[in-house]
Amino acid sequence: MDVGKYNLNENNILNFSPEEHEIAIATQNLEVFYGKKQAIFNGNLQFERYRITSLIGASGSGKSTYLRSLNRMNDDIAQVKGKIIYRGLDVNSPKINVYEMRKHIGMVFQRPNPFSKSIRSNITFALKQNGIKDKQRLNQIVESSLKDAALWDEVKDDLDKSAWALSGGQQQRLCIARTIAMKPDILLLDEPASALDPISTSKIEETLIELKKKYTIIIVTHNMQQASRISDYTAFFHLGHILEYDKTKHLFTTPKITATNDYISGNFG
Amino acid sequence: MKTKIQNRIALTTIRIIALLVVFILMFLLGDILIAGVPHISWHFLTAPSQSFTSGGGIGVQLFNSIYLLFLTLIISFPISLGAGIFLAEYAPKNFLTATVRMAIEVLSSLPSVVVGLFGFLLFVVQMKMGFSIIAGAIALTFFNLPLLTRNIEESLTAVPDLQREAGMALGLSKWRTVTRIVLPEALPGIITGVVLGAGRVFGEAAALIYTAGQSATNIDFTQWNPLNSASPLNLMRPAETLAVHIWKINSEGVMPDASAVSAGSSAVLIIAVLFFNLLARLLGNALYRKLTATKNR
């Protein structure tokens, strides 16, 4: 696809020109430490709005750590330094209300983790906690978010059944529905399909491609085909460094550095 | 071939051991029930006890046991819930919390007679409560607290971290995540622990002999003002429980039908504890279904 003007800087990191691209979220000099061990060095990335961006790299390359830092899910276990700019605010500042922020920057995890409640309550639970009491409105949100997550047709007659009665792929789509019911801006997905079979995986991928019309999606994946199938941009992580960030098409066909080439062609240790 | 035989031997051994355990339990239960159940009647369950003549019942003792249990739970449950939540969800790993954990462990292995004597010296004598229900309830709280705290902590820890992350990622505060997601999921385990603990408390004698006392004063079941000294609800009256009663008639009972009263009381006690266990299971499952909207566990 045509993404307009952009340039790669000397570190092979794509920079958007603000006139042509709307930037949903960006990090500046993000560094993450687990105790004394540094897991992310110099994280500078911009994410374009209504696009899917993949974060790829070997296990331990820091891509999940980076993703989880974006909505401060690492607060308790790691030290995060640097800036995360979202709507002109630094999300990483101690003054930010993290609970409010997470309603704007939602997250779906690697393993499906529905609550041990009914399908309906899985979606309405957090909404009710946020003070939405109107039954009709709740039902509307349940329906629209399940439709957005491409799950509605499969569960519309079983909304009061336990979420655990669903298959793994359905559970994961329920988790996506639950997250988008909060009407976030940005959807962070941490290997959402790695625990699923190929059919469920392709359903999730189709869902994501639909969802990018309304949401900015950042996805960590181990699956190179997945990254090239669904994402517009891809960032390659290696040992805590972001070595290359480019349009997916370019990164997969003409990588600028050998490490990227080695990884995407499978020549990697 | 060899592994097959090994497997069969191991399985058979385990089965025999399991059967043995079941058999011993059944034998004990059967013996107590066969000896005691014929003596149980409505009169026996409701009449006051007699010290020197036959025909006494256990009405007061039964009420005392239930009332004491109720008080103990009211005191110990909120404390252990708070402690359990703190230890499972909030406690940092440091010297202080390690010490607290160790203290709980030590407390849980304290012999109940020591708890009783401690309660006697501190509450009955020092704080001038006298032999009273409240002193007994506090002693039983000491006895129940560590187990209950441990049980709540473990039930909470058993809930996968993924559930906490799910709640946090939806913008819920940690407190809400704990109370609205983690706690409901842990509730069946907690309820089971509470009711099983209740069974233990119900059968406890040693901790009560010197705290709640060994005398069943006559109480007036028409007087429900807790401040009246004859009221069943009065906290300051001495209260012999069923378990203490059994101990007492076996050690110094002089009524002609002592052995029959003892057997009947034991049967009632056992049936009550069985009932608690059954209740624990039913309640735990029912709650789990209600909270998780699942058909079955």
Automatic annotation (TrEMBL), chain A:
Q: Name one GO molecular function term.
A: ATP hydrolysis activity
Supply the Gene3D superfamilies for this chain. Answer: P-loop containing nucleotide triphosphate hydrolases
First and last residue of the signal peptide: none
Q: Which PROSITE patterns match?
A: ABC_TRANSPORTER_1, ABC_TRANSPORTER_2
An example of a Gene Ontology cellular component annotation for this protein is: membrane
Membrane spanning stretches: none
Q: What PANTHER family does the record point to?
A: ABC TRANSPORTER I FAMILY MEMBER 17, PHOSPHATE IMPORT ATP-BINDING PROTEIN PSTB 2
| Protein name in the entry | Phosphate ABC transporter ATP-binding protein
TrEMBL record, chain B:
Entries under PROSITE patterns matching the protein? ABC_TM1
Q: Where are the transmembrane segments?
A: 12-45, 65-90, 102-123, 129-148, 258-280
One Pfam family hit: BPD_transp_1
**Compartment(s) of residence:** Cell membrane
Recorded topology in the membrane:
Multi-pass membrane protein
Matching entries from Gene3D superfamilies are given as: MetI-like
**Glycosyltransferase found in the keyword field:** no
Q: What GO CC terms are in its UniProt record?
A: plasma membrane
Q: What InterPro entries does this protein's entry cite?
A: MetI-like, MetI-like_sf, Phosphate_PstA
Which segments constitute the ABC transmembrane type-1 domain?
62-280
* Any one biological process term the GO annotation gives: phosphate ion transmembrane transport
Write out the GO MF terms: phosphate transmembrane transporter activity
Q: Which UniProt keywords apply?
A: Cell membrane, Membrane, Transmembrane, Transmembrane helix, Transport
Family statement:
Belongs to the binding-protein-dependent transport system permease family. CysTW subfamily.
Q: What name has this protein been given in UniProt?
A: Phosphate transport system permease protein PstA
Q: Which organism is it from?
A: Liquorilactobacillus ghanensis DSM 18630
